[in-house]
């Protein structure tokens, strides 16, 4: 029997979250206020992730994997200071982080999360 697939906040190109078989897959999230430094953008992104996980019926304590893209690795330490404070104690997910060319020059960080329900 096929498991249902639920898509949240969907448009023609993407869904902000897809729920399937007890797992929530979030799209990459970026900050709304891109005038902020990387710490400010990271705080905004993680708040959006918290909201999307809640809408899907879960939370960051059930995060399985986090992928972080930075526009430059020079922002790694500042991003990590915010990220480390966000992690649910004792429930750190698997994680990778790298520098890539992001969709717009004022995007400093994009984060994607996979979580269990």
UniProtKB/TrEMBL annotation:
InterPro entries: RutC-like_sf, YjgF/YER057c/UK114, YoaB-like. Gene3D superfamilies: RutC-like. This is RidA/YER057c/UK114 family protein. It comes from Bordetella genomosp. 10. The lineage of its organism: Bacteria, Pseudomonadati, Pseudomonadota, Betaproteobacteria, Burkholderiales.
């Amino acid at each position: 029997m096929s498991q249902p697939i639920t898509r949240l906040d969907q448009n023609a190109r993407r869904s902000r979250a897809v729920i399937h078989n007890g797992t929530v897959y979030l799209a990459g999230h970026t900050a709304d206020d891109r005038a902020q430094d990387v710490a400010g953008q990271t705080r905004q992104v993680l708040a959006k992730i918290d909201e999307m996980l809640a809408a899907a019926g879960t939370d960051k304590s059930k995060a399985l994997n986090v992928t972080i893209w930075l526009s430059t690795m020079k922002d790694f330490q500042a991003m990590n200071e915010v990220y480390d404070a966000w992690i649910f104690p004792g429930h750190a997910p698997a994680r990778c982080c790298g520098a890539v060319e992001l969709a717009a020059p004022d995007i400093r960080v994009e984060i994607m999360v996979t979580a269990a329900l």
